[in-house]
Amino acid sequence: MSILTVATQPIEGQKPGTSGLRKKTRQFMQPHFLENFVQAILDAIGGAAGKTFVLGGDGRYFAPQAAQVILRMCAAQGAARVIVGQNALLSTPAASHLIRLNKTDGGFIMSASHNPGGPDEDFGLKFNMANGGPAPESVTDAIFAATRTITEYRLFEAQNVDLSSIGETMLGPMVVAVVDPVADYADLMETLFDFPALSAMFASGFRMQFDAMCAITGPYATEILEHRLGATPGTVVNGTPLPDFGGMHPDPNPVWAHDLMSAMFSPDAPDFGAASDGDGDRNMVVGRETYVAPSDSLAVLTANAHLAPGYRGGIVGVARSMPTSAAADRVAERLGVASFETPTGWKFFGNLLDAGRVTLCGEESFGTGSDHVREKDGLWAVLLWLNILAERRQSVAEILAAHWRDYGRNYYSRHDYEALPDDVANRIVGGLQARLGELAGQELEGMTVASADDFSYTDPVDGSVSEHQGLRIGFTDGSRFVIRLSGTGTEGATLRLYLERYVAGPDGLDLDVQEALAPVIDAAEALAHIREISGREGPQVIT
Ligand code: G1P
Ligand code: ZN
To answer: Could you tell me if the CB of 363 is within 6 A of ligand 1?
Structure first.
């Protein structure tokens, strides 16, 4: 056994996006592609010597082979130990927890999140830091820079390590510790939520459907909901992780989780429904005949978190990504705690969480989480909802309606125009950007433009500045729309149009969302010409 040094050269297109590097699987499988990127990560973090890492992923196609490469590269570069989820499986929040629990130097997460998996779909790799959170921009920039100058990578010549049995083996001088991917995470959940109360609720006939979408949350949800909390067997559906997610698009929203939606809107609907994404960090929650928009979910969780044991002392603050609705801000204001508006992507919450300035965080893209880990956490959100339902003894519909009566309602929707040619997307965004300065005061659809800017964020903890995080147009009545390009797609450009309108109530709290937003939708088209320039009749996905 020896260390191989392989000559290589930079490969185009290794710039990490909103959440790590995501590419078509076949591209990741090309010679040197994965190796170059892993070497760039190890170089950017100052080498692997003496370090301990966590490794796992959502089990998608190519992950078993990728895990072996990462292990051999860590071994060749002097890492002391790598903690691997059995069969290289770990949900993203569980990986974040293991990084923190074992006080490691970081971790590799093999996932393309909610993007489909398989030889013709997507693969991804992300590095998380010692705090358990995604690498900040300073590090992802350094990784990208390293991919541009790379000349060689090093890997240990050895047989594949058996990752199917729990226990420790050696890979040359490095310890490979294969661990149960679920146990520590499930234990953490038990410290945050009132498991006896939840068990009692299930024992009294409360029914739930959890759609794991053939992705990583299946084993976690089965252990926690069915085994530890006694939910009826069969509560978890699509519970076995498959390399291609059974052909599903493992994105928990009303469009892709349509089976769950129809179950929840059927006459025999259970009391509560939830779904999670490929790597287990996203969640969608649904009541009987009641869809909960993620922005509303964040607001309801913020208002009610104190009902769960882990948050009984109250929260210190809440952060949301800029395109997320301002519903949570209203709750924070009432609670007298701080609220923050960050760019899209969980990495921007890390500093606020580490500095103890926020307890809860959320994004409109079906992501919610807290300071228990440094990633969004799908099952955590589901358990917090369950804890709130158990305490309030009300239905999801009743809780939501009461919330809107109390705070007013931020009508909200996101329209995605997917796989646009790059030049078309750039023309739309560039065109609006060029006109930002002249928009204030313009009247459209009975509304007046109050402000128009390109969102720039100064991190309140370390002062770092992130520019060009989305174009936002605000109206004097508090309505707004935001336009930005996706940083996670792997095909062409995806343009996201985020729409929001506030209604104080008591009237007008039960409108159809798209109808309520119609003036904002029309104003956005009049200013940005998305349909006109793209030639599309409308968005592909509406959430
Ligand atoms: C999308 C979501 C964003 C989320 C990210 C990773 O990124 O919009 O909120 O953090 O996935 O799950 P985008 O494709 O918009 O860059
Ligand atoms: Zn995800």
So the answer is: yes
